[in-house]
Records
---
Amino acid sequence: MKLLVNGNHLQVPSNVFTIADVITHFFKHDPIVIVEHNGIILEKNNHPKQIVADGDKIELVEFVGGG
Amino acid sequence: MLTIGEKQFNSRLFLGTGKYPSFAIQKEAVEVSETNILTFSVRRMDIFESSQPNFLEKIDLKNYDLLPNTAGAKTAEEAVRTAKLAKASGLCDMVKVEIIGCDKTLLPDPVETLRATEELLKEGFIVLPYTSDDVVLARKLEELGAHAIMPGASPIGSGQGIINPLNLSFIIEQANVPVIVDAGIGSPKDAAFAMELGADGVLLNTAVSASLDPVKMAEAMKLAVEAGRLGYEAGRIPKKRYATASSPTEGISI
């Protein structure tokens, strides 16, 4: 399956089914991450329920230092 | 005690989290500052760096309210999206509306700031717009329902201090919501001055993070904000053109 993640077209393995799987695929630890899936911002408790499909657009964002 | 919306804070110092030399120094500076409110930005993660550390993971989030900003937004729509992303973290319901309208001065876009404030209030956010020191704009933001007004002292990161105390004092006097002086603070003197003018709080970042000793400067800013507030509450003496002796003029034995 191919996903557009943070502007990058990437192939993900076949064991990636949900948004939570996408996060686990990219990050070793459990990061504080906010997800926008096909333009819809997700609540964190929906990450394990939200199914991803070929061609989906996913934005993974976080809090960084700022004033 | 500072009240914004229904939230109450012991500290009147808002601390930014950008550009510290290290997480260790930043953590110590944050602790020493005794701030209750930390500001953050929202950015894309680096998906090619799988074990990137994040400052939020270094602190006990129970001790702080997070104030995400919408920096990077040029329009109201972009700011609203950023605010919604921040809220979806489940970690905050306040937002600092920051919509830059000039790349050189980083001064805010007043029209987009008004539009974003209105929209975010409809969405139920606690909204703190970063604005210029324009008195009428500050009043209009309050009329929309903004929970605090955050006028800049001078351009972001410039360290020029308070360049228009008259306008700031007009904004403070007319406001019925907290006024937080945000941006441009360079030294403890500036922070104390803002508080002496009657500001309800001060938001600063670079003045601490880019100082030679951020931990020491964080403490200095804490003390300056407290001293300025106390001075404001105590009420300074009027300025006079000529001297007034503080020693008795009677009983001089010479």
Note: Chain A has one domain: 2-63.
---
Amino acid sequence: MASIKCKMESGIQLLARLSKKTGIERFYPIIFESGPKLGDFIEIYGEGSTTCLLGDLICECLIPNDLNGPEASIIVFNTDGKLTLDYLINLSKIKLSKRLKNSTNKPCHDSKVINSLLNLMLKNLFILDIYNTTQFYTSIQNLEFFLTKYSNVSLCIFDTLTAFYWDEQNLQKATKMDSYVKKLLRIVQKIVKDFKITVLYSRPEYFSTSKESIENLEPCYENSESEQINYRIQIVYNEKDVNLVNVRTYNKQFQKKFHIFNDEIVWL
Amino acid sequence: MNALERKEHVYLTESILKTLKQNRIITLFDFLQEEAEKLSTLTKLTLPQVLEIRQEIFKKHSAHLINGATLFINSLTCKKYIPTHITSLDEVLGGGIPVGLITEVCGLAGCGKSQLCMQLAINSVKESDDSVLYVDTKGDFSAVRIQKILDANGVSYKDMALIMLKIRVVHIWNMEDLITLLENIKNGILKIEKLSLIIVDSLPCLMLQHFGDENKIGLTFLNRVVNNSRYISKEFQTGFIYVNIQTRWIDQDVSEPEEIESSCTVKDITYNEKRNRCLGKYWQTIPALLLVIEKCSDYDIENNYENCVMIKVIVTRHTNPLLAENCTLKLNALGVT
């Protein structure tokens, strides 16, 4: 008689399996190509601000299905405070106008249409304004509750993951920057692993024990492993030339050029 | 990170806290991270009681998840800018000093940073009921200068007194005191009616005391100052200006002579003036808006302005760090206009 194997799952795993979640695959193909998969971890860093790319990614992710967007839900841990709602609204309006123009072949200036679509987008955006270390760690632990309550969340963003690093250092011994990031990734991974969500975080470029270029940093991984990341994206602003992003995945590395026009990223 | 204390919940007695401490559960985070079953076994509390404590901690300390649509409705009634009332500057800034964000005013020594800040303080309170908190860390805040500016602008003594009353000046000499000041505002211990703008002139004066610290305590303080400033500017709807200093040095680039046959080559020596914002890499990523002040040295001679200095304000935003907009302001007895 063949043995029957039983697989147990927790209530959270069951909920995550049964709940309908919007996938965000191919939502930003210029960087993620066919990805990112639910469960992936993405790192964005740069010497200058990462807000332009983060803002662009958030708005693209919120674009409604009717305009060929993923209409995904997002939770943002706003620890940096620079990613403002006004900025996201302005950017969303620009994107909506363009999409409406493309879908109807004529420019859309109807503010009612744009505002109702904008409202739909904003309903899928959840923001946590965080101002201190205790609030940061407590909110991360509370993420399980947030993700259970809003089971359609597909993307969780930390802008930035490293905002409270210096506040946490004591006089005796400072944690190495890489170890600090890994510790936080371990904590976040432990909480989100059953929820099938993509996690994206930003950090300043200097926040790395190794000052190596992107190709010499720790490799990216195909599947989600503890403390490991799947995409590493570096933003480089060039005063004399075009700006660019260096993207590194488990099997390739490539570069994309961009300009910023009216707050929006224009890929070249 | 806050320690787990009795005040968190009535179930957390001294003996339970002691047991938890023996098992290395010291902070709130340690408690939240631990399996509820294990905590129940350790503390002899029932599982629902442990979960009740957890809920209470979340309720007290976790940030609230706010929906974007709700935030949008709330933002409609919020002020976005504190106008500087200097027309050309407001145009470049898109309305004024942004509310809810940190602004840095930066420049070489003597370029007019403090003059601009004093003018911003005057202009913010002059035609409104708002008040300004001016944090003087150098001990050179000049009430006489403000009085002279107001006098030159024909402001009556009565109005002058009212304006000066609305500019609250506090002297701070170290980072610990600045943190205490900000925490007192945050916790409502220090209440300033209709506070619209906080100016800290200047931050490097306080941070210089910690330069070269091996233990980086200065950065720990700076991180706390930034976090408190972010909270105050967002929750109290204020503009927040930090004055920073630029340093400059001459970098001597000696270009290598090309491989030419002549044995007599003269090295081409070029001198590049380089400038740097103080306060290090951590601070560079903090301000959302950067105002770099430069003194226009030739302007007064060319334009025959007497007793007047022209200053150029170069504005960059974090959303597009390469896009710099600028305007030129006049600094004279009437103030900055």
Note: Chain A touches chain B through 57 residues (CB under 8 Å).
